Amino acid sequence: MKAAAHAETGEALKDRVLEILSHVPDPEIPCVSVVDLGIVRDVREDALVITPTYSGCPATLAIASAIRSALDRAGLGRLRIETVLSPAWTTDWISEEGREKLRAYGIAPPPHGAARYSLRDAPAACPRCGSPHTEEISRFGSTPCKSLNRCLACGEPFDRFKCH
Amino acid sequence: MKPLVEYALRLGDDGLVLGQQLSEWCGHSPMLEIDLALANIGLDLIGQSSHFLKLAGDTEGEGRDADVLAFHRDVLDFRNALLVEQPNGDFAQTIARQFLFSNWQELLMRELMRSHDATLSAIAGKAVKEVVYHARFANEWMVRLGDGTEESRNRIIAGLEWMWRFVDELFAVDATVEELIVRGVAVDPRLLRAEWDARIAQALAEATLEAPKPRRAASGGRSGHHSEHLGHLLTEMQFLPRAYPGVAW
After folding, report:
1. What does the radius of gyration of chain A's CA atoms come to, in whole angstroms?
2. What is the CATH T-level fold of the domain B3-243, as seen in this structure?
3. Domain tally for chain A?
4. How far is A139 from chain B (nearest CA, A)?
5. What CA–CA distance (Å, rounded) separates A149 from A162?
6. How many CB pairs under 8 A join A and B?
7. In chain B, whose CA is at the least distance from the CA of A84?
8. Cβ contact (<8 Å) for A56 and B48?
9. Nearest C-alpha in B relative to A56
10. Whether residue A58 has a cis bond before it, omega within 30° of 0
11. A98-121 pLDDT per residue, tens
12. Which portions of chain A are predicted below pLDDT 70?
């Protein structure tokens, strides 16, 4: 098995690594994988390139260590994990599948094309009842990447993935 | 010391010291939302700082990483501006400090994205997206406090009065920065002043506040001449790794 893994190159290797990482959850939002989040930037013969979401996101170390374990378990210990800061991560890199998983989990996903210096996002649709009548309570939520919101229709508070 | 090491330390120490101060509000803020906001802002700043300090350590080439630089330097080796080491005081004083700093930092990071140094540019590219929200948070609270009750108004006026003397240092340039400006590495902060003044004036007008009268500016942080506050902050922040060298989770 391990010998076979070493023989893989190019697209085959990339596909396999992405498949493995699609089972590595974000430690703080476990409904989405690190691939859904768009933090996996490149797979090379000798290295896996990832990028942090926020500069100070405390999950960054936990994510790197979870990825390390997953790669090692799959016999891909030769892949180093490389962290790059540029280009800066944006919520536009969250996959469609990831957005659906967030919504099902009760977190309003970020709108598309919103990675800009926007200070006020249009109200999110409530992930519980779907109503567009919601308001932001605080730009800063339970993790760096989320804001606190409230649905004015069903009254439920909810998290929203901030456009970033 | 290489100019880039010095410059990265200044940027890193600003974020580290202010982030540490903001973390002290955790569990003590007036409301849950403010608690979350100040903790998040502190986290962003410490994250940015760790990138700047890593750059300083890598450039220096003597094996000091971000943790060593954060936890094993003494007061005289810190290069943060005096503004960020001013005590939290009451909530208004914390907001006044954040208001002056975040508006400056946003302009600085936006320019630093154009730095010829690829690492500085990359860190700034991430930071600017975060700092936009810090500035907005501080600006909104300036308005609530300034245009709020008599009590909140008096407190924010007092906070601004205290913090105002530390503003000029943010825009000052010395030989180290001059050299880096010429090389296209550092931002010339003097060029940010007009826009900063305009932003501050606009926010103050909305908050029905006036800018404090000019007063004798205090400076020295960039060359290691700090107020007594920084020493107290460092004893708390550095205690664990100093008391238990090499400790790990």
Report:
1. 17
2. Ferritin (1.20.1260)
3. 2
4. 7
5. 11
6. 77
7. B122
8. yes
9. B47
10. no
11. 999 999 999 999 887 654 555 567
12. 1-7, 113-120
- Residue B35, pLDDT > 50, answer yes
Give the residue from A39, A140, A149, A163 with the most B CB atoms within 10 Å of its CB, the best one to mutate. A140
- pLDDT digit string (tens) for B68-82? 999 999 999 999 999
Q: What is the pLDDT of residue B196?
A: 98
Mean pLDDT, rounded, for B208-236:
96
CA of A49 to nearest chain B CA: how many angstroms apart?
15
| Contact status, residue A122 vs residue A113, Cβ threshold 8 Å | no
Last residue of a domain, one of A61, A89, A117: A89
In chain B, what are the domain boundaries?
3-243
In whole numbers, what is the pLDDT of chain A averaged over residues? 89
Residues whose CB is less than 8 angstroms from the CB of residue A26 and which lie 6 or more positions away in sequence, other chains included:
A32, A33, A34, A37, A59, A63
Overall size of chain B counted in residues: 249
SS3 content of chain B, % helix, strand, coil (to 5): 70, 0, 30
What's the pLDDT tens digit per position in B101-132? 999 999 999 999 999 999 999 999 999 999 99
Do B41 and A140 lie within an 8 Å CB cutoff?
Answer: yes
Range of the domain at A43: 2-89
User: Do A22 and A82 sit in the same domain of this protein?
Assistant: yes
| B46 to A137: CB separation less than 8 angstroms, yes or no | no
